[in-house]
Description:
By secondary structure, the protein is an all-alpha fold. The protein has one domain (about 35-435): Amino acid/polyamine transporter I, CATH 1.20.1740.10. It contains 14 helices and 2 strands. Strands 1-2 form a two-stranded antiparallel ribbon. The longest helix has about 35 residues, at about 110-145. The protein is globular. It is found in: Membrane. InterPro entries: AA_transpt_TM (IPR013057).
Amino acid sequence: MKDTGAKNRTGDVSVGEHFDIEVPDTAHQISSDSWFQVAFVLTTGINNAYVLGYSGTVMVPLGWVGGVVGLVLATAISLYANALVAKLHEFGGKRHIRYRDLAGFIYGRKAYCLTWGLQYVNLFMINCGFIILAGSALKAVYVLFRDDHAMKLPHFIAIAGLFCAVFAIGVPHLSALGIWLVVSTIFSLIFIVVAVVLAVKDGVKTHSRDYEIQGSPLSKLFTITAAAANLTFVFNTGMLPEIQATVRQPVVKNMMKALYFQFTIGVLPMLAVTFIGYWAYGSSTSTYLLNSVTGPLWVKALANISAFLQSVICLHIFASPTYEYMDTKFGITGSTLALKNLTFRIMARGGYLAVSTLLSALLPFLGDFMSFTGAVSTIPLTFILANHMYYKAKDNKLNPMQKIWHWLNVVFFSLMSFAAAIAAVRLISVDSKNFHVFADL
């Protein structure tokens, strides 16, 4: 554990300029986890309840060719981009345990603040999505047994937010997840296996399916562009340095092991449920796959409850940089159960999740959240910034072709981010007209 308030003055002597930026040490635990535990954190980040939406939000807009090629390319490109960031973790002779610390070390104070803002918007939107997912899973259980519509989606989103707050108060930091990662994996396997088995059963019974991409030419253009942003959202957390901060030495070597695990074995369950769901239901696939499958009520209830509980655990991963900032800023160290620490977590984390829950209930459009988040923060953080940081940090060691390659990536993903943001805003605008706030979707 690091003492809150201690400051590290950073300067980069190898980039050519000296950026005198003070960054705080952390109140959370670092350098304590094996590469395998970190690999499980990353794999949990992929195989969360969001996978139940990819058949509808990725495959339906892109079709077989676009969806399969897009997911395979996104896997390879995401591994490459994450590897670039991982290799910079000890750049300049010190560990950069936050994304903003690394950006500030390379570029200076403005980049430090910009990266901070982008990352926290990214994580906030992801967490809103998890709360929507958890609420949708609870509602799915409710309608299995009662179809009186007495309780609406916003009610279940509120319940989900309460569960997330209780979990956040009880688990102080990312490394403390421990056994919860195993529990999360079990929950993931339950809802993925159920979704796959029931989808295969339905698919075998259905002899004809429509895989045509729906909509007018203009509508298709916008939905395909938004789906491309969803591809980047599938594999990337936007918080790789924060996760890497928890791994033991040697940090780069161990992190690369974790990334290779994530992007090989770790992606298989996600790809399986995505492709099989689309194969079974075609263009009519729901954005929440468990709403499309048919089967025994208790099996579907088990899958939905597992998706709900796994979402609660997974949200904690993506909220951990926010919690780390608050704990470090206000000196929250020592025993988890100390009255001061417990009271602070109730107020700070509870308040953060209350705001997230309110926004989630207000605009519960999950696909739009994914598209907008991918466009405005995931793409800039994971692809644009990663390539340019690596180019700037390793400028003297790169040959001309390598420099051109990194600049091509920066330009391409900048254009993609801009186009995807326009498409996502259009989708949100359309959905806002079709559905009122606090909609019961």
